[in-house]
Amino acid sequence: MIKNKCLTIILLLFSSNVLLAQVPAWGGGADQSDLSFGFTFSYVNNYYKIGKTPSWRDPYFDQVTGKYITSALKSISSANSPGFAIGFITRYSLTDHLEARATPALIFADRSLSYAYEVSSQDVIKQIQTTTVDFPLEFKLKSDRLQNFRAYVLGGVKYSVAIGSKKNNDVNMDPLDKMVKNVGGFGSYEAGLGCDIYFEFFKLSPEIKISNSMGNLLVPENHPYSSPLSKLGLHTIMLSLYFE
Known about the structure:
By secondary structure, the protein is mostly beta strands. The chain contains 1 helix and 14 strands. It has one domain (about 25-244): Porin, CATH 2.40.160. Strands 1, 5, 6, 7, 10, 11, 12, 13 and 14 form a 9-stranded antiparallel β-sheet that branches. Strands 4-8-9 form a 3-stranded antiparallel β-sheet, with no helix packed on it. A two-stranded antiparallel ribbon has the order 2-3.
């Protein structure tokens, strides 16, 4: 009799532990209201998509000195440039599976262009040093929640404003020392996917997102590094952690 009672108690305790283990975490109440806030940390990687003029290979002729100051070009490329971002998130639930969100962020990521010449064994690399503020507006389509997990896809647009561009008065600068300039603001479209993971006091959302700029980022100028270019676009990959 005593053995049966002990066995019953053990079974009840085991069953209660199993049931408690299956109770979904609250997630700090992130999904309990239509409006919530959070913050984000991101790894950023970007590079230029380059458009070239028909005569981009031609040596550059300097009107001031009356001579060619570069040899013919072999290639123009843009290497992946890493950076990071910090930002905030404001989320508004439209339905159980659709929400709108704004995720303004401060982006610290330089960009670079590399020029390879016929008679030079060393490439000329021009860094475009920028700090930008991104203002994305996105729509997030979520799956049903499965315990403490749900997947999602998203898409949207953003506007980026440069606030830390290196601005030089290069009117009297040697043409070979001049930098390639970008516009101060531009729009992009973006898409991504991720998942919401619910913990007791907060919700964590790992996410990968790709964006491509719209229009032309290049400010046309007459010098050896801008003249061969007809258009610059920016391709960006962001790996983010969102905390709500």
